[in-house]
Each structure stands twice: as structure tokens, then as C-alpha cells.
Amino acid sequence: MSETVTVSELDLALVNALQLRPRASWTELASPLGVTASTLARRWERLTELGLAWVYAAPGREFSRTRCTAFVLLRCRPGSRADLADRLCAFDEVVTVELTGPGSADLLLDVLASDLPALTRFLTARLEPLPGLVSVDCLFATSLFVEGSRWRLRSLAPTQLTALGTAGAGAPEPTPTLELDAVDRALLDALVRDGRLGLAALAERSASSPATVRRRLRRLTDSGVLTFRCDMATELAGRPLPVSLLGRAPARDIPTVHRTLAALPECRLVAAVTGTANIFTTLWVHDLGDVQRREAALCARLPTLTVTDRIVGLHTVKRMGHLLDADGRRTGVRPIRPW
Questions:
Q1: I need a surface site. Which of 38, 203, 206, 208 has the fewest CB within 10 A?
Q2: In the structure, how many helices (H) and strands (E) does the chain have?
Q3: Rg (CA), the chain
Q4: Residue 188 — φ and ψ, nearest 5°?
Q5: Tell me: the pLDDT tens digits for 40-83?
Q6: pLDDT of residue 150
Q7: How far is C-alpha 251 from the geometric centre of its chain's CA atoms?
Q8: CA 80 to CA 77: how far, in whole Å?
Q9: What is the pTM of this model?
Q10: Residue 238 vs residues 7, 52, 149, 327: alpha-carbon distances, Å
Q11: What is the DSSP string of 185-202?
Q12: What is the dihedral of CA 81, 84, 85, 87, to 10 degrees?
């Protein structure tokens, strides 16, 4: 059992601010949050040491446009699920592993690969031979509309949001796919572990200079190769219950379904997928009763949407390469390398 700690309103505001500006300096955040930079630094050090919050680099919007994402549903033999989950956590391609409630799957995976052949090799040569595995159902993402970095804690007041200057003009226009070199890959490998590493530390890890690091980071973020996330233990997020819905809608209505789902505060992910269902979405709801209420409200607003499956998450053991305990606190990192 994790140590019981008291989380203050300032802690929650700090995490929310870092969701919006993950690499902002403590000096930049001090005035909007009404405390000193040194206070924020101490608070963040405590949160990270306890595994309550962390910042890291994740694939950006360019990844879904040029590379492969799949959601994989696994059925396991009785008694084999925990061991299988541990084995899966060791794979770079498997960025998220979730134990699920009784239903169509025992485990839900997010799998990222550089291209379709690489994803196919992983599924056939590495995943399917694992002991204890009964069946594999793979949903290829054809479009990723919303991903986890968009979800917000909503702890900041409107005046603080204004002071943080988060109402930008939107994402830059897409750029040609970048060819990553050794410096880029060294930076990515360091940042998936700790997204708040400073320029000097990143320069040392990539055998380059701080000026080079600054330019490379701008290039990688502007091109959409990476994005930065601030994630947190479930106790900071109000202990939400993750539920993934599979649904089917006419192709002409998918943009409307996407916009409706994306507007929900509890929405973590929306993707168009292959298979008998063509919509996959993950919501963080309050409780089991909320699953039915949300589904009923969605179907009332989207009459052409049919929900075909509901997958309730019981315990996320790995999220975007970060290992989590039963309370959702980070205990370690298995760096992802999908680029």
C-alpha cells in the first residue's frame, strides 16, 4: 500500500498548470499560481518522488499521421493474466497495459510501431506466442482525434488560465516528416523518462550543446514528432474509472461523433478504428453507474451511434511507458521507442 499523503490545492493547481505548459520554468509559473518559484520546485520534487505526478515526452500528432497505432484486446487463460501483463510491460511496442473487468477482454493494450510491417511482426512473432494467451483482437487506428495529453485536471481558476497564456492559436501546420538522427533519438529517449530535464542535462545526454538542444526540441515539437504530457496518480485525478467504448457509426457521421466525444471533459481518447466497430473512445468516469448514464446520453445525442462493447479498466499497470502500482502511482519507467 502506498504512503498516505495530503495533497493541497496548490499541488493540484501545479499539476494542472504543467498539463498546460509541461516545460514551463518555475519562474514562469510562480506568478499565476501566487507562490515563489522555489516553492513550486519543492512541491514538484515531492510529487515526483512519491510517484504522484510526472512529465514526459509522448508521440505527437505526426505519429498518428505517418506511423501505426493499434488497440489490442487479449483473452487469457484463468490465472495467467498477471504474469502475462508483466511480460507485456517489458515490450517497447506495448506502451500501455490495462487489466480489465469481466467481458470481451482481460487485457487492453496500446501498441505503437514505426510502420505496419513492424506492427505485424510484433503481433505475430512476439505477442501471439506468449504463454497463457487465448485470443488476440487488434483494432488498427485509422485516425486519432483525441489523445491523453488533452485531458485536464481543471483545478485552475479562469484568471490563472489567462495568466498562463494557454489560449494559443492552435497547432502549427503539418510539416514534412522528419528524418531523426542520433541526437534526436538521444533526446527522445531522455525525455520519455523525464520531460522536464533542462537544456544542459539534455545536451550532456545527447552529446551536443544547449543551443542545439533548444533548436532540436523546437523542431521536434513544431513538427508534431513529440508532445509533452503531465500525468498523475489516480488519487490526484479523483480516482476516475476508465471505461473504453467500442461503437459503430456511418462513415459520414464519424466527424460528428468525434466532435461530440472530444467536447466531454472526461474524454481521454477518440480514434477511428478498423473492424466491426469503427469508433474507439476512452472516458474517465466517476463510477460504474456513470458508464450507463454516459452511454445513454451519448446515444441520445448521436442517434446513429451504436455502442457495441464496454471495457472497464480495473488497473493500469503501464501507461505510456511508465509503470504504475495499484494506486496509480509511478514506480518506474520502461522507456518507449516508437519513433
A1: 38
A2: 12, 12
A3: 20
A4: -60, -45
A5: 999 999 999 999 999 999 999 888 788 899 999 999 999 999 99
A6: 84
A7: 26
A8: 6
A9: 0.92
A10: 11, 12, 17, 11
A11: HHHHHHHTT-TT--HHHH
A12: 170
Between CA 179 and CA 219 the distance in angstroms is 11
Helix (H) or strand (E) holding 247: strand 241-248
Cα→Cα distances 136→13, 70, 144, Å: 41, 12, 21
pLDDT at residue 113 in the model? 94
Residue ranges, the chain, pLDDT below 50: 168-169
| Amino acid occupying residue 56 | Y
Looking at residue 156, what is its pLDDT? 95
The CA distances from residue 31 to 155, 171, 274, 287, in Å, are 16, 26, 47, 36
The CA-based diameter of the chain, rounded to the nearest angstrom, is: 56
Show the cell assigned to 93: 511496442
Residue 9 identity: E
DSSP-assigned letter for residue 124: I
Give the per-residue pLDDT at 2.
61
**How far apart are alpha carbons 142 and 101 in whole angstroms?**
26
Amino acid residing at 208:
S
Going by their DSSP bridges, the two strands 330-333 and 322-324 should be labelled as antiparallel
- Grid cell for residue 96: 500501455
